[in-house]
Amino acid sequence: MVRLTPVPQARPDRRGRRRRLGRSVRRGVRSGEFQLPIADVFTIAGRGVVVVGQVAAGASVVGETTIVGIEAFRKRVDVARQGDMVGLMLRGVSREQVHAGDIVVVRQ
């Protein structure tokens, strides 16, 4: 199951500094849970939606749930692991459903 978690946008605090609201990505990670904070979202005509970001936790493979493709630095790879900067092509997800700042979570 892939779950998209919206993360609140940065808001100014009392001193006017911008701060990020919401829980840390790493807090509450279950064993083997894949998490990818989305940095950017693209639409490829005829293919689908691609989300880009750095894997914060876990690992995921192609064909798992709605992930139909993984690319790292313009090369197709079979698995995305913690620390990898990747693009995930998602099946059955529209562009309006995902935004920069959301987190892709795949439960194992």
Give the structure's gist in a few sentences.
This protein is mostly beta strands and 108 residues long. It contains no helices and twelve strands. The strands form four sheets. It has a five-stranded antiparallel β-sheet with strand order 5-6-11-8-9, with no helix packed on it. A three-stranded antiparallel β-sheet has the order 1-12-4, with no helix packed on it.
What does it look like?
By secondary structure, this protein is mostly beta strands. It is 0% helix and 45% strand. It contains no helices and twelve strands. The chain has strands spanning 2-5, 11-12, 18-19, 34-37, 40-44, 48-54, 59-61, 67-72, 75-77, 79-81, 85-90, 103-106. Strands 5-6-11-8-9 form a five-stranded antiparallel sheet, with no helix packed on it. The protein starts with a strand and ends with a strand.
Note the main attributes of this structure:
108 residues, mainly beta, five-stranded antiparallel sheet
